[in-house]
Amino acid sequence: MSSHELKTGPLEYRRQEDQMTILGFWIFLGAEIVLFATLFATYAVLFGRTADSTPPMELFEPGIVLIMTFLLLTSSFTCGLAIHEMRRGNAKALRNWMIITLILGATFLGFEIYEFIHYAHEGATMQSSAYWSAFFTLAGTHGLHVTLGIGWVILLLIQLAKRGLTPKTSRKFFVIGLYWHFLDVVWIFIFTSVYLIGMVV
Amino acid sequence: MQLDEFFVTGEPLIYGGMVSIALVTIAILFILTYFKKWGWLWREWLTTVDHKKIGVMYILSALAMLFRGGVDAMMMRVQLAFPNMNFLNAQHYDEIFTTHGTVMIIFMAMPFLIGLMNIIVPLQIGARDFAFPYLNALSFWSFLFGAMLFNISFVIGGSPDAGWTSYTPLAGAAMSPGPGQNFYLMGLQLSGIGTLATGINLMVTILKMRAPKMKMFQMPIFTWSTLITSFIIVFAFPILTVALALMTLDRIFGAQFFTLTGEGMPMMWANLFWMWGHPEVYIVILPAFGIFSEVICTFARKQLFGYKAMVWAIILIAGLSFLVWVHHFFTMGAGAFVNSVFSISTMLIAVPTGVKIFNWLGTLYKSKIKNTVAMMWALAFIPSFVIGGVTGVMLGMASADYQFHNTYFLVAHFHYVLIAGTVFACFSGLVFWYPKMFGHKLNERIGKWSFWFFVIGFHVCFFPQYFVGLDGMPRRVFTIIPEWMPLNIISTIGAFGMGAGFAIFVFCILYSYRYSEREKSGDSWGDGRTLEWATPTPVPFYNFATLPEIDSQDAYVKLKEEGRTTFEEDKLEPIHMPNNTGQPIIMMGFLFFASFGLVFEWMWMAIAFLIAGLIMMVVRSFDYDEGYHVEVDEIKRIERSARGL
């Protein structure tokens, strides 16, 4: 454990312990990819096994899913802007862009909850059939990640207000940035391989 | 729920278990209170983030689990010795083979090896702790609470009884109602968190915290095997996480993944389970290979023969380990093409494994072998493991597997690889590194007794099982027919030989604690080759006062030649160390109760403790503890007394 601190370069990479945390988080994202890959594979295997419940083609609608997609993609962009401002040392802009990211994420989540309730009213629940179990688990796991991400960002915003930009707070924001972009990538796969295919097949 | 549904009732053996648990708990509480050791326990152990202490706790827990799994095994062997035995009934037998398998793989083999990695890997690469010491403590407590949750099932709620593989639909809610199977799901889920975290932690530690200028291809082979094992952990464990979660959703929340209604697919469980499960067996065997390599080099007093070939063989095995899972269910009927592909990939694994066998033989060739107990375990491993490996190739041939599948031939095979591989390595590694951990050696004479009892007992126990398997005895039956009796009696005698070997080993630990000479030098065996032997014994909490620059494999051999140490007074600088913390044990304690709530489907309890666990994570997020510095004067004082200067 070395406490030497570099004098230049991005704040989050100046101390060895922060470099290690970032590498550790990349590896964790590798594990997350395997986790979601397993859920996608499960979904693919159980695709079409709707038993006597409603098939997805009758429920999936392009409108709401497209709005959700744009919300999340935009939030990924604003999250990138937040990290950009952090690199420029602008704590206030970092905070503002992060709050916008948060609002977009929360709106996405609201739509997803609405969507799930809507499907449940139409008779498609986790318990209806193997297909719907797989659907709700895959989309739900993503939604749960977004929820945790929102809670996490709120904690970091409080820490930013208390401590300002330090190597440690910068590293924390950088890491949640990675996490947020990762969730966006996962959503793109859900959008295409779950919703788009589900609408036509 | 009535109290008599909560506690398991009606089994004399289990009542005995309850009484002994109660007595041991009371005894521990009494001793801790009487000798006023609570503060010591909390400060020195429960809140520690020191990788060496965490490693010791891992190994102690693993030994306890080895005892539990071993008692299960001997009970099964008693039941199977004669036809129509009434020692265990069918239900109890099913529960015992389930807990035996789960405990041995998840709560014995892995923690034992992770314990050794904890202690040795940072020392081997010249690091002062793990990359994330806090996370390391969290991993340990997640393992221990997961293990405890699984283990209490036999007195509270009832044990799982669907086998350690928990195939659906048998393990589903319809056919295995009640908390038993939930204990399996939540116990494994809880301890899986820690395993994944340890994998990440070790990877970052090895990639980022090596001594100055130590290249990847100069790392000791045990560290290499740990690094590659960590890769397997990181890429295999999430599959188990998902599989367990899906079955939990099925059982508790009525989902339809593996059910026979709602178009669920029971065989998908087998696929998911073995996509994790096969890499898992390499998670427990690759570090074992690493341990044997270190022991063989040290006591053959030679550099490892074919170091690079060895590393590439480990990497290749790790890659192939993800491509063979179907061989666990060739008889499922996936068709000739799929079976052929997996048959070939399975047999391919024998190639790099063979390379490693020749590496060890090449190292031994024309060397002056020191016949220590650690070395004897390693020497016994090579031929025993080859028997296990060759029968593995036999099982890998899909068409022949239709004959071997689910028989004692298979049981004999995997015990030959897991015991001769992993368990021998655990004993070998523990004996080898024992002086580094505890400051004294284990008694060699008693150690040899335990070795001979265990190894002979092992062959007597499992060799006949190949033949009784070929005679058609299926696994997981609770009673035998008269034709299988002679071989089964031999097998049972062997099992008791292994039990005696283990008992002697435990006696050896106690005996050595009292009578062994205390170590004065750091290089206990006199032939140490890697950096862990460069530290003084007992190892100072910061491990290395100064870090030598490394420019060769077998770093310590070179240091000894050059007369250098890890205490170069003119290069001393203050050392940054992390503070102890009680957060990990509290966080995992909450998650333990949350899991317990889920096991009994008491949602209020699960949710309340899950929130408590989340609050602990918030506490951690706001924790800006940056540790402390050990000043140069103190380092000097500690090193001088440790090195007798």
From TrEMBL, chain A:
Compartment(s) of residence: Cell membrane
Principal location: membrane
Transmembrane residue ranges: 21-44, 64-84, 96-114, 134-161, 173-197
Gene3D superfamilies assigned: Cytochrome c oxidase, subunit III, four-helix bundle
Entry's EC annotation: 1.10.3.-
Membrane topology of the entry: Multi-pass membrane protein
PROSITE patterns named among the record's database cross-references: COX3 (PS50253)
A Pfam family: COX3
Keyword Isomerase: no
NCBIfam families linked: QoxC
Function: Catalyzes quinol oxidation with the concomitant reduction of oxygen to water.
Protein name per its UniProtKB record: Quinol oxidase subunit 3
Organism field: Halobacillus campisalis
Gene name for this UniProt entry: qoxC
UniProtKB/TrEMBL annotation, chain B:
Membrane-traversing stretches: 12-35, 56-76, 96-121, 133-156, 183-209, 221-247, 281-299, 311-330, 336-361, 373-394, 414-434, 446-467, 487-511, 585-618
Co-factor binding details: Binds a copper B center. Heme A3.
UniProt-listed PANTHER family: CYTOCHROME BO(3) UBIQUINOL OXIDASE SUBUNIT 1, CYTOCHROME C OXIDASE SUBUNIT 1
Function: Catalyzes quinol oxidation with the concomitant reduction of oxygen to water.
Enzyme class, first EC level, given as a word: oxidoreductase
Alphabetical keyword list: Cell membrane, Copper, Electron transport, Heme, Hydrogen ion transport, Ion transport, Iron, Membrane, Metal-binding, Oxidoreductase, Respiratory chain, Transmembrane, Transmembrane helix, Transport
SUPFAM superfamilies for this protein: Cytochrome c oxidase subunit I-like (SSF81442)
Protein localization: Cell membrane
Family: Belongs to the heme-copper respiratory oxidase family.
Source species of the chain: Halobacillus campisalis
A UniProt-annotated Pfam family: COX1
EC number: 1.10.3.-
Pathway annotation: Energy metabolism; oxidative phosphorylation
Keyword Oxidoreductase attached: yes
Membrane topology value: Multi-pass membrane protein
NCBIfam families: QoxB
Domain of life: Bacteria
CDD domains (alphabetical): Ubiquinol_Oxidase_I
Domain Cytochrome oxidase subunit I profile: 34-551
Name of the featured protein: Quinol oxidase subunit 1
Gene: qoxB
Reactions mediated catalytically: 2 a quinol + O2 = 2 a quinone + 2 H2O
Coiled-coil regions listed in the entry: none
